[in-house]
Amino acid sequence: MTRAFVFLLALLFAFGPTLAAQSNDDKIHDQVMLKLAGDPDVKGNHFDVDVKDGVVTLRGTVSQEKFRQKADKLTKKIKGVKSVVDELTVKVQ
Length: 93
Fold this sequence. Notes:
Helix content: 40-55%
Largest sheet: 3 strands, mixed
Number of domains: 1
Shape: elongated
Low-confidence stretches: none
CATH topology: Histidine-containing Protein, Chain: A
C-alpha cells in the first residue's frame, strides 16, 4: 500500500503542473471565445482560438482591419493571457 501511495504521489508531482496549465488554457480559451462573441464589433467574424501555456493564437478572417486590432486588444485583456499571436486575415466583402 505504501508503494502505491508513493507511486501516485510521484505521478501527481510529475503531471500536476501540466494538468493545471491545461486547465488554465481551457479557461482562457473559453473566456476569449465569450469575449469575442459578446463584442458588437467583432462578433460574427470567424475565429479559431488556440491556447498553449497562456499564449493565445487567433486565426480566421475579419471583415475590417479595425476588427482584427480589436480582437487582439480584447484577447490581451483576459486574465492569464501572456501574449497573443495574431494570424487573422482581413477579407473585405
